[in-house]
Amino acid sequence: MKIIMKCVFAYICISCLLFSCRKQDHFYKEFLEGGEIIYTGKADSVLFHPGKNRAQLSWRIKDPNIIQMKVYWNSNLDSLTIDVNKTDGVDSIGVVIEDLEERFYSFDIYSINAEGDRSIKSTVEGQVYGDEYQQNRFHRAIESISFFDDQAIVLWFNPESNEVGSEIRYTNADGVEATVFVPTTETSTTLDNVALGDTFDYRTWHRPDSLAIDTFYTNFKTEEIRLIERELDYARFAAHKLDNDPGDFGVNRVPFLWNGDFEGATSGSGGWYRTATNSGVPNQVTIDMGVVAKLTRFKFWQRGVITEHGLLYANASPKKIELWGTDNPDPDGDYANWYKLGEHEVVRPSGLSPGQPVTAEDIAAAQEGHEITISMDAPVVRFIRIRAMETFENQPHFFLGNIGVFGQVVRVE
């Protein structure tokens, strides 16, 4: 009985195998019906290169029988045919598709031989960019703009990842238009032969990725070469006595005006400066700042802001004062080539007359100091003159405590 069962089982297995072979042969014959299907070599190493409302596709082909390439997109509603002059080696093909909307695309590429046989498709996808992308690009951020020695120095923040550089356009002091390209690796850019108050225009170049065929630009943005106010370095200051300047009183010296000492009371202590007795008012002292600077503010403090309060708004303290500047003073002290930078009249807050005891309000105002604001229209200067026009009690000399000079250095000489 076991032998019979084994024989029946073997018969069934052989029958199934024979049937299976007939079925596979049937499908194989259907596949070959009408001749063998031939596929040409397909596009290889396909790349998508984004652009502005366009895209470039590139690929390689090796099959020597290819005579044409076909590209489809928009669900095969749009297509492009490229004729191919094939060589014996590997050829590179590139095509630019124009007039595309700004959106994501999928492209199918086929190769075709002389018999019309078509390859298996190669697909490549990518984003096409346009106005929306461009309008949302930003300028590379500027950290600061400084000025020195007829040069503007632009310091940059780090660029964004898709920036490729920035373009600066400006007109220099000679009226010549200049263009500077700033690579993303540069953190500082120098603009030569410019002046304070000049402007420059710049825009930043962007590429969506390294394969992009178009560069996207921001609109031009205008920046001003602005003055950066700082207190000048008094270590460069020196007295510069001209022929018509008065002498000093005793051991008092002009440099006492910028030593920062507000407390010295006795003559020669350094807390104040005074011109020689009976040297006259109006009168002045001349100072070489050691640099050429665009000045913005000048401050002065009366003698007696910490001690000797009785000298505030009194005695030989200047009531009216002028500030003058030049880059080239005449040794004789003539004012012909000096420019008046500003003037100031000291007003006593309490309204009391000179010689009357000072109030807390009077002292506070004196300690704050008195200030001359200098117009941006004023020229750059190296030398300044502090000219006392009138003292509180019409003394024939004047004294001052300290001074402060503010602006931006444009040149060191």
CATH superfamily name of the largest domain?
Answer: Galactose-binding domain-like
List the total number of helices. 3
Give the count of structural domains.
Answer: 3
Radius of gyration: 43 Å
Secondary-structure element sequence? HEEEEEEEHEEEEEEEEEEEEEEHEEEE
| Proper CATH architecture of the largest domain | Sandwich
Summarize the structure.
By secondary structure, the chain is mainly beta. About 10% of the residues lie in helices and about 40% in strands.
Descriptive report:
Pfam families: DUF4998, DUF5000. This is DUF5000 domain-containing protein. InterPro entries: DUF5000. Residues 258-407 form the DUF5000 domain. By secondary structure, the chain is mainly beta. The chain folds into three domains: 44-128, Immunoglobulin-like, CATH 2.60.40; 137-226, Immunoglobulins (Immunoglobulin-like, Sandwich), CATH 2.60.40; 231-412, Galactose-binding domain-like (Jelly Rolls). The protein is 11% helix and 40% strand. The longest helix is centred in the first third of the chain and has 31 residues, at 2-32. It is rod-shaped and about 120 Å long.
